[in-house]
Amino acid sequence: MSKVQFSVQVLVVSDLARSKAYYQDVLGCEVNDFWAVRDDFRLGFKLIEGKSAEDVRPNRIGDGQEKVWDTYAYVETHDDLDELYEELKSKGAILHQKPEVYEFDWGVWKEFSVKDPDQYVIAFGSGKKKE
Q: Could you give the domains of the chain?
């Protein structure tokens, strides 16, 4: 069976030039006409300018959810996650959720999230199993 190599999130944005600048300058993506990718497509977006403001529709919170995300990316370690948080923060990311830690029977989960100029929420998280 064939394996999927990567995937990208398609985002309809209100201002393509503004979004491209944010994804490149703040989120550290390589950006071309409409692709914004980071870390060899481990984080990828296709940015498409909407015809009107109503075309931009970030996810809304679902039944039983406490948080809403449009994209969720996994980072290997908590140290990597902390480093990424500091990097994005220093570049002027729109912070949505500061790093939070959750303890479970299996271990510890840590996550944070940022928003883009159209209010899409991009979350990053990592897990650490109990020793």
A: 9-50+68-129 (3.10.180.10)
Dihedral sign from CA coordinates of 18, 20, 21, 27: positive
Residues 35, 119, 4: CA angle, nearest 5 degrees:
40
- C-alpha 120/C-alpha 37 separation (Å) is 16
Largest CA distance in the chain: 52
Output DSSP code: residue 62: P
- The pLDDT tens digits for 64-105 are 888 999 999 999 999 999 999 999 999 999 999 999 999 999
d(CA 108, CA 101): 7
